[in-house]
Amino acid sequence: MALQDGKSAVGRPQLHSPVFFDYPGQAWQGVSMRGLRLKGTSAPIQGANDLVFAHTGLQRVVFRLIWPGYGHVEWCRALPVVAPNRVPTRVALGLQIASNFAHFVESQYETPSAREGMIAPTCVRFEHLFLVSLQNTSEGVWEADVALDLS
Q1: With 60 as the cut, is the pLDDT of residue 6 above it?
Q2: Which of 67, 85, 122, 138 has its CB surrounded by the most CB atoms within 10 Å?
Q3: Helices in the chain by DSSP H: which ranges?
Q4: What is the sign of the dihedral through the CA atoms of 12, 70, 74 and 151?
């Protein structure tokens, strides 16, 4: 049961449903972040033109990027989800997320606390990342569910 202020009847914030990203005809596989960056809003995504935040009432969300071995690196960015008379489409949101990951990968000069997930030319590279979903993890905060394809 939700109340007007976005909190449940027991006072906890009400979380929004995840936003999923897949190629047409696929499920739970995600889409290449590199492909999103290369093709932009013309990338083939199932439901590409869906207005993903249209009924949420949100104006912006905080995108938090957490990566194994880089817990000491704070990466939070405000993403506008409403522009004047415009709500982003699924593909536009995916492009924003992919751009954030690209900047994160490009700016990693930090030494990871563990080798797992290490971002380096001989380990994890941007082209290995597939965006599966965007999850609302706490009030106003969203995190990406990312799959790795190291092949």
Answers
A1: no
A2: 67
A3: 33-39, 90-106
A4: negative
